[in-house]
Write a structure and sequence with these properties.
Thioredoxin-like_sf, 40% strand, Thioredoxin_domain, globular, mainly beta, 6-blade_b-propeller_TolB-like, Thioredoxin-like domain-containing protein
Length: 612
């Protein structure tokens, strides 16, 4: 490696790491000076964000492979108010198996110091303490590996690399029957089937919702079928109708979230089979065709429900709903364009934001959806999606009242009741809320991250209280008190907005292919750029889809603030390969902006290529 290496040019010293405190360090503070000689990877994340969770899983093999030269540090930069709570962050670190050091940065000071603009953002600091790379989004593991290899070669030659594992102090979890359960299902015999996510298994509980009957799964993270199955953070559960179960050969569909699979469970034997998903994460193109269910790629299926004669899947990882037919063994897209935002209408045009909970109304006419990142509750009826409560990606709180004014905070579960009302597991508010007659009320609060709701045959409501590691039964009379009005505090995300000038703005999307790749136009234009805004009036012109990655936008001087939604993708192929592989890189940004006369007139965004 020569002295004119690009990794040695125009270097910027990495800002010192400061925050409220550290996790997984045994109580000590870390400083960049302590890590001199190591390659440091800073992962700016927030625990609500599905893309951030994807990155945690992508980094695990990288951390193991380079354990003697690479130190990963999570910098927690919260979106929601609940995520600023230190105890909630500590729980999330355990829940998602994060075993590298994590800096708690509730005021997002490090986010600003390192000029992050999206969740997640990865920043690489070299052994001499200089920033050498920044990249937003997921899918960068292979590119990071190549960068680490290059940094190792360079700094070994310079004598500035220090090898040896860094010790981390990961606390031992408390021993509880359930550990961060995610979803539950009432079984015909009165028992409950629970997705015991952090225990990587399913737990069957007796009718008292406390006594363990059996456990399905070894407890090891994996994807093995059979009578000793393995899961990876299982989520939603759907009981098939008897006729479908008889043909399919299993009774329950399980959303095996981190494996990007759907699994089938035969209740009589506990046998598990994979019924949908290739095991690879979806990074394709949008189509609404039917596909072989075992050939399609999925992306973090979070919940499942029987609706419209099939299993509907809340595909949280790509902001869509999919369908799965257990009889025909086919699957495909059901609703959503993959744009992360809030827009109603025909199902192939709607925008969603990490749908995480599903419930079919007892009459079968409506499918209710907890759209978590928009803090919204929505429903589908007659091929159209509607919003019952919720205002957008960055508006949330705990406010009761008329549904069009009420606020939720990252709900993960919904339950449609026979009286036409809907209960909401309002997760980050620690509450159960109710929508009825156009009003939102609080039924009960003081819960620890409720993530799902179950209605028993006897009419009892069971809450999956994930943060308390249990199922709880709502007391007698609780539902009768649902009309109590609870005043609350409104919040907006404190993510710093980008200041832009009214009038013409140059959107400059810079694409950097992964090493060894080039743009591929074999099947048409290699790039695609889609721009929209919330509210739509923010953009006088410049919205829509083009193949060019540079576009002039015109911002309205009459709309003071909003969110620009930018979705970009680029097709590449390998250079100088006998059988070149093709790759598709895709990233979406929701950029909160404020329009001010002295704002910037250029908005640069970087799309970095990835290996498939």
């Amino acid at each position: 490696m020569t002295a004119d290496s690009p990794l040695l040019k125009a270097r910027v010293r990495a800002p010192e790491l400061r925050g409220r405190g550290w996790l997984n360090t045994g109580g000590r503070d870390l400083h960049l000076s302590d890590l001199r000689g190591k390659i440091v990877l800073l992962d700016f994340w927030t625990f609500c964000c599905i893309n951030c969770l994807h990155v945690l899983d992508e980094l695990r093999p990288l951390e193991e492979r380079y354990s003697d030269v690479l130190v990963t540090i999570g910098v927690h930069s919260p979106k929601f108010e609940h995520e600023k709570d230190a105890a909630a962050l500590a729980a999330a670190v355990e829940r998602y198996g994060v075993d590298h050091p994590v800096l708690d940065d509730p005021e997002m000071l490090m986010w600003q110091q390192y000029a992050a603009k999206a969740w997640p953002t990865l920043t690489v600091v070299d052994p001499e303490g200089y920033v050498v790379a920044n990249m937003a989004g997921e899918g960068h593991a292979e590119g990071l590996a190549r960068l680490v290899d290059e940094l190792v070669r360079l700094h070994e030659a310079r004598g500035t690399l220090r090898r040896g594992d860094e010790a981390h102090a990961v606390p031992n979890p408390d021993l509880t029957l359930l550990r961060f359960p995610s979803k539950a299902l009432a079984l015909p015999d009165g028992h409950f089937l629970v997705s015991d996510a952090t225990h990587q298994s399913l737990a069957e509980l007796a009718a008292d919702n406390e006594t363990l009957v059996r456990r399905i799964g070894t407890g090891r993270r994996g994807r093995k079928d059979g009578t000793e199955p393995e899961f990876s953070e299982p989520g939603g559960l759907c009981l098939l109708p008897p006729h479908a179960a008889e043909i399919a050969g299993y009774d329950v569909v399980v959303a095996d979230t981190v494996n990007h699979l759907l699994r089938g469970l035969r209740l009589s034997t506990g046998e598990v089979t994979t019924v949908a998903g290739s095991g690879s994460q979806w990074r394709g193109t949008v189509d609404f065709e039917a596909h072989d269910s075992l050939a399609v790629d999925l992306s973090s299926p979070w919940d499942v429900a029987w609706f419209d004669g099939k299993v509907v899947v809340a595909m949280a990882g790509i902001h869509q709903l999919w369908w799965f037919d257990p009889v025909k063994r086919t699957a495909g897209m059901y609703a959503g364009t993959t744009v992360e935002a809030l827009k109603d209408g025909p199902l192939d045009e709607v925008w969603m934001a990490q749908p995480s909970g599903l419930s079919t109304s007892p009459d079968g006419r409506r499918l209710w959806i907890a759209d978590s990142e928009s803090s919204a509750v929505r429903w589908i009826e007659d091929g159209e999606m509607h919003t019952a409560a919720g205002q957008g990606l960055f508006d949330f709180g705990h406010v009761d009242g008329p549904a069009d004014q009420a606020l939720l905070q990252h709900p993960l579960g919904v339950l449609a009741l026979p009286d036409g009302s809907v209960l909401i597991a309002d997760t980050y508010n620690g509450a159960v809320r109710r929508i009825a007659a156009g009003q939102v009320t609080t039924v009960v609060d003081g819960l620890q991250e409720p993530s799902d709701l179950v209605l028993t045959a006897e009419g009892d409501v069971i809450v999956v209280e994930s943060g308390a590691h249990r199922l709880v039964r709502l007391g007698a009379g609780t539902l009768a008190a649902a009309g109590i009005d609870v005043s609350g505090v409104r919040h907006r995300t404190e993510r710093p907005p980008t200041l832009l000038s009214p009038g013409e703005i140059e959107l400059d999307l810079i694409f950097e292919p992964a090493p060894g790749q080039k743009l591929d136009e074999s099947f048409g234009p290699s790039t695609r750029l889609e721009v929209s805004a919330s509210p739509p009036e923010l953009l006088i012109s410049g919205s829509g889809v083009t193949t060019a990655l540079r576009r002039t936008l015109v911002l309205s001087p009459d709309v003071p603030a909003g969110v620009l939604q930018v979705v970009a993708q680029a097709a590449t192929c390998d250079i100088d390969a006998e059988f070149p592989a093709c790759h598709l890189t895709r990233q979406d940004w929701g950029v909160p902006i404020r329009v001010e006369p002295d704002g910037a007139t250029r908005l640069p965004l970087i799309l970095r290529g990835m290996d498939a």
